[in-house]
Specification:
Subunit structure: Homotetramer.
Helix content: 25-40%
Number of strands: 12
CATH superfamily of the largest domain: P-loop containing nucleotide triphosphate hydrolases
Strand content: 15-25%
CATH class of the largest domain: Alpha Beta
EC number: 2.7.1.21
Number of helices: 6
Radius of gyration: 17 Å
Number of domains: 2
Shape: elongated
Order of helices and strands: EHEEEEHEHEHEEEEEHH
Subcellular location: Cytoplasm
InterPro entries: P-loop_NTPase, Thymidine_kinase, Thymidine_kinase_CS
CATH topology of the largest domain: Rossmann fold
Family: Belongs to the thymidine kinase family.
Structural class: alpha/beta
Largest sheet: 6 strands, parallel
Distance between the termini: 46 Å
CATH architecture of the largest domain: 3-Layer(aba) Sandwich
């Protein structure tokens, strides 16, 4: 039976690696997975999913205008779709998550989403919140804070390497911009304890 999955974590927990391995497993069995990534994220090239360990793959693009139900209906006239794998799922809209649930329930196609749970302020992304609410299976991937504890949060750094305590929710960046922390260090950073950003500089360098 098809299900809607959400694999979530802070940054640098191996979400893209897991997605690409999952796609490989489908192809190895002669099945056809379709990969999606957010059009807003061009860090590795447009329509490209890349992991920190060197795995890469081409992907379809989604933005706020993408209708996954209409897309599936059109695509299945060309070839069967055995699974949909979505990277950067935090950028999905609430309505798109609802569409993906319909793809699972009515189209009988499994959907596996990978994304961040919260933004740099510790607030849920709307797409992630909806996935947490309605996904059939929730799986947390583990990232590590500089203190050795599980990192569940992410901070954003400015050009001087200090923690930003306000700003837009969506700013695309990699390890030069974002650092994963445990809740205790995340709270200290947002409270204005810039010493909490110091280990982040060490990790970056």
């Amino acid at each position: 039976m098809a299900q809607l999955y959400f694999y979530y974590s802070a940054m640098n927990a191996g979400k893209s690696t897991s997605l690409l391995q999952n796609a490989h497993n489908y192809r190895e069995r002669g099945l056809n997975p379709v990969l999606f990534t957010a059009a807003i994220d061009e860090r590795y090239g447009k329509g490209r999913i890349a992991s920190r360990i060197g795995l890469q793959a081409d992907a379809e693009l989604f933005d706020a205008s993408t209708d996954f139900i209409a897309w599936l209906a059109a695509r299945q006239t060309q070839a069967p779709v055995h699974c949909i794998l979505i990277d950067e799922a935090q950028f999905l809209t609430v309505e798109q998550v609802n569409q993906l649930a319909a793809v699972v329930d009515e189209g009988h196609v499994p959907v596996v989403c990978y994304g961040l749970r919260t933004d740099f302020m510790g607030e849920l992304f709307p797409g992630s919140a909806r996935l947490l609410a309605i996904a059939d299976k929730l799986n947390e991937l583990k990232a590590i804070c500089h203190c050795g504890r599980k990192a569940t949060m992410t901070v954003r750094l400015n050009s001087e390497g200090l923690v930003q305590q306000s700003g837009e929710q969506v700013v695309i960046g990699d390890n030069d911009v974002y650092v994963s922390l445990c809740r205790a260090h995340h709270r200290a950073a947002l409270a204005g304890n810039h010493a909490a950003a110091k280990p982040a500089r060490i990790i970056k360098e």
